[in-house]
Amino acid sequence: GKDLEGIVFQHPIFDRDSIGILGEFVTGETGSGVVHIAPGHGEEDFEVGERYGLEILCPVDEQGRFTAEALQFEGLDLDAGNEAVLEALKEKNNLLKVNKIIHPYPYCWRCHKPVIFRTTTQWFMNIDHKSHRERALSAVEKVRWIPEESLNRMYSAVATRPDWCLSRQRFWGVAIPAFYCQNCHEALLIPEWIEKIAEAITEKGADIWYQDPFPIQFRCPYCGSDNLRRESDILDVWFDSGCSYLAVSEYYEELTWPSDLYLEGSDQHRGWFNQSLMIALGTRNESPYHQVLTHGFVLDHEGRGMHKSLGNFVLAKEPVEEYGADILRLWVASSDYTQDIRYSKEIMARIVEAYRKFRNTFRFMLSNLYDFDPEKDRVDFSKMAIIDRYIEDRLTKIIEIVKKYYDNY
């Protein structure tokens, strides 16, 4: 493939040339080993395009329609555009073969429809700025992780994470207090301005950001213009939750910093645990937690996650109403919380049987102790029968073990 580097190709549809470039992500094991790339529509393509100095062309708008850069395909949505491209290739006798293949492709987790990648301007946190990643890795090693193997998951999540994309194109959320100069086109995120905006929001509420005209006047530090456009993007909700320690520890005087324990599901090594750590290191130069405990998830009898869309979602009140709260408690207490656990009527039936044995045993013991008076009937340990002393000794050791397990979660 390296012999093709730099070779000039005629574009199969448009009247322009393309050049041959190399990419490590392309192999000869699948297909011909020659693929087209779109630097504006994929991370790997973007990186290769940057390396070769290609134009980062993104001819699809936020509505999923081709832009004027796509020439005769302008205005078509992606489905219609794909068909039009095939027809254009046929007309130019440049379509050798059409074949459908099955391969992995990303889908939206909300609507379950295929997604496309578009190169857009966003706000990022540079994770490697001023050794931020190294400090985060060092902090991870000082935290107590429960279970212990979650240390490796968190360390890997921090070591391999990309820069944090902070901006979102949605209507509701925390505004990004940035401006764009309409004169010199500089993006402006200035600490002194942020302080003034925060003071105004504290006094008059968050809606002040959307008032026209904006009640606080600023001038571009680069050109002096006051023709500024407010940022319409909002912050990633993980930034909100990652700052929760500030709201909690500073609002309640009786709480200490850092927090003694963060408690969440195992998916939060790349979520809340991770983002909280990044923000805390940036604002307070230390981890926001001393200990982190992660638990598994409740799955259905087939081992699938519970979702309303799958029809296997069970509300906690349902087993309480059907079996009673004690049965639900016993099911939880008999499970290893560090792992995923399954729920089904068959499993609960087994728990009911175990509960009956416990209950009948306790009823038998209590019925034999109905007239027991500790003041009159208590027997000193030294005067007990050997079997009774053995049971007392076992009980004491079990109590110690249980306390130890409680202390260690």
What would your notes on this structure say?
- The chain is α/β, with parallel strands linked by helices and 409 residues long.
- The chain folds into 5 domains: 90 residues, Valyl/Leucyl/Isoleucyl-tRNA synthetase, editing domain (Isoleucyl-tRNA Synthetase, domain 2, Alpha-Beta Complex); 99 residues, no CATH class; 56 residues; 71 residues, no CATH class; 29 residues, no CATH class.
- 37% of the residues lie in helices and 11% in strands.
- It has 13 helices and 14 strands.
- The strands form 6 sheets. The protein has a 3-stranded parallel sheet with strand order 4-12-11, covered by helices on one side.
- A hairpin with a 5-residue loop joins strand 7 and strand 8.
- Helix 3 packs antiparallel against helix 4, helix 3 crosses helix 8 and helix 10 crosses helix 11.
- The chain is extended and about 105 Å long.
- The model has no long low-confidence stretch (mean pLDDT 91).
User: Could you tell me the radius of gyration in angstroms?
Assistant: 31 Å
**What are the secondary-structure elements, in order, as H or E?**
EEHHEHEHEEEEHEEHHEHEEHHEHHH
Structure class: alpha/beta
Strand-residue proportion: 5-15%
First-to-last CA distance? 56 Å
- Level of helix content? 25-40%
What's the shape? extended
